[in-house]
Amino acid sequence: MNEMTTIARTTTLKDWETDQEVRWCPGCGDYAILKAVQRTMPEIGTAPENTVFISGIGCSSRFPYYMETYGFHTIHGRAPAFATGLKLANPNLDIWIVTGDGDGLSIGGNHTMHLIRRNLDCQIMLFNNEIYGLTKGQYSPTSRVGTTSPSTPYGSVDRPAQPAAFALGAGARFVARGFDVSKELPTVLKAAHAHKGAAFIEIFQNCIVYNKDVFEDFAAPKGAEDRQLWLKQGEPMLYAKGTKGIALDAEALHLKTVDVVDGDWQAAGVIVHDVTNRSVAHMLVEMPFGEFPMALGVLYDDPRPTFEADVVRQNQAAAEGKTADLQGLLKKGQTWTVADGGPEL
Amino acid sequence: MATAVEDQADKRPRPLSDAVVVRFAGDSGDGMQLTGGQFTLSSALAGNDFATFPDFPAEIRAPQGTLFGVSAFQINFGSSAIETAGDAPDVLVAMNPAALKTNVPQLKQGGLIIADEGEFNDRNLVKAKYAANPLEDGSLAKWQLLKLNISQLTMDAVKPFGLGNKEALRCKNMWTLGLALWMFDRDRQPLIDWLNGKFAKDPNLAAANVAALNAGHAYGETAELAGPLKQHHVDPAPVAPGLYRTLTGAEGIALGLVAGAQLAKLPMFFGGYPITPASAILHHLSRLKEYDVTTFQAEDEIAAICSAIGASYGGSLGVTSSSGPGIALKGEAMGLAIMTELPLVIVNSQRGGPSTGLPTKTEQSDLYQAVYGRNGDAPMPVISARSPGDAFECAIEAVRIAVQYMTPVMLLTDGYIANAAEPWAVPDLTTYEAFPVEFLTEVPEGGFKPYGRDEKLKRPWVRPGTPDLLHRIGGIEKELGTGHINYAPDNHQAMTDIRKAKIDGVKVPDQVVELGAEGGKLAVVGWGSTFGPIHQAVRRKRAEGGDVSHIHIRHIWPLPANLGELLKSYDKVIVPEMNTGQLKTVLRDQYLVDAKPVNKVSGQPFTIAEIEAAIEGALA
Fold this sequence. Notes:
The complex is a heterodimer of chains A (345) and B (620). Chain A has 345 residues and is of the alpha/beta class.
């Protein structure tokens, strides 16, 4: 988000829909994410013409065609680089990057890392479906060990990347998690937009064709309260209807789950979520699901000056007091004049 | 060789032939590029025309004294028009055995070697793989040899300043420069001023360097009595009156890009990634913020071009620059710029290839890559600069075509042009016609079509942020007019045809004949930095009565409309190129002319003599 440019505008969900036919597979989690974004935009209150969706290549990267905003469907893995040039050319634009686990962490991992460490003001929505959908089902850098796919008929052997941990390790100042059909997703998106700087959102997304229900273990509505930890600023990290919580094992320096009796979370040592606590954020992004619930919501949010603001500031400082006299520049340095009689200094 | 008696009899500076070639060669750490650069400046101030050729190793600090660590700087200066750095040096300054060994074979027979005998010790001789000391064994008999212990003379000269041994020896290049200034009857004062400015923070060091410079100069004066050392005076070259400066190709491109952006009334965004020999362009532009230039050192070559395309999408002039290997990485993004029809300038400072090849040596072997090197039918205009001054003009031309046709444009230069310097008559910018960009800002009559076209087939340029013109672009085939995704067979045929027709229709000036007649026995067709040697060779052959003309192509793609007919008006066509025959193939393909290749891929520019020989062969 950018305070210079938040052009207040009353819009409805319809204002953010294009006339283009949506071409994802029926039942794809992308539909739910698209709706969540279209529902969120009027609540943010920005103007469609000031908004740009930039994507790479993959199923998720078709996203810009369906948003009634400016949009640029670029090349595989490079969306962050286009976004960087665009934002430097016009810092007033509100830029959303749409990428996937293959686009953003495999072919484009380098650009994702540098975008985050530079802290360009934008929202990065990484749709993680743990599979290559558009190329028909090969395993991806986030696929779990043993994933069988056309390219790994005997199961994948490489260990998966963890998107949120990657982002935080790259220096992210905002890391959040959500999933496609979650009702909380708009809240997460709004928080990301409100963060000035690179806001990284991992969105678990169900690929109905090639990796169906791979997130059901925590995303299924039944029993969700036992498997999802929704983090809220200033509130204790409780789940399972308040009967369980996350505490710190101060000696071993790692998180642990604790039982909460009679709602007395303080007695159980449950931690209160502080979005600016980077140490706890590092533990949350690596908290193994199964033993722990899945950490969702805003895991970390602590803004720093943005890249484009610093570039603009430096450009202005460097140009201050100088005139853009190109003719003068051409003559700069040691010159000599050739008169009809010959050269002179 | 002149005798000592004659030297004594005549102390006036003696006129030499109208041009002199001097090569300074030493260890990478000896400051030869700096020495050459300052000698170049003194040539300019003396009113000589000149051309230079810096030739340095790819290693930053190659091990001292080794053959591959030799750095050389050649300058050709004279009282007539100079267009090449010269074939064979008249004077070689060799600061150590390795420099002598690698450079003496090119020295003109009877030419002068000035060697620092203080460096010809056993250790350095072994490093240079000399079995015996060449200064002593008579192996240099066909040249004139002047042995001076420059190291010792420098140490003596700077002794009063109390420098450490290492620091004192670093003044050697100034001692050498002082001697060279004396040899060519040059004024020392501008150099003294420059040294005082450079070492303003350390006046003692400045004074030591000035002392070394003066000592070298004084040595020339007093040593004139002995041996081959003589003073020469080279008259000023007759050049058009006006204001001049020295210009390298990298400076020419940087300044031309800024001028182009101003003529287009656009801010410039430059996305770059360090690579030899293209980095100098990034360095120059990063100091020009007040000209509405934003520079961005990206994480890689791909991000560099993608950020530039992103900036163009946002309404800036996107520019990226690299050399062959980096250009290869940018290929996919160029295709996207072609598909989305966004303006972009891509500068390729060519170097020896393939792969990493010869990073610091020059070559013209990326012409195929520029014209053909992308997936799909991906036409793109290509322009090539012939000299540092021409690079300024070509950069403006590249910007003009990019914004007037909404297309990426490739500007080819090479390592030779990028590093070489020439005197440049500072142009009057008011004589350039502006080509201000008009963005589409509201819905035109008949409705808005992102891929609607004007008479030049150009689509509108709409900046994000513009109300009522919201649209999406991307790399998937676009539907005629609307720009929506469309995979239909007829649509792809039509869009491919339009993209080709747009670039074929780019208006480029008719090809002129640089020297000689339109039509005749032989045309020598060149492009890029071979201009100098071709021009001189053709001039010499014409002076001897040869029926030969020089044609030099700036617009590689699309080619000038009259070129086919022009080439067919000669009995024979030869194409000298620093590659294995790339322009030759394009010309054959486009015009069915029997263009014959003349090739050199040694990492060194053509000599005039090599082109003369090719002309003789073709006319025989």
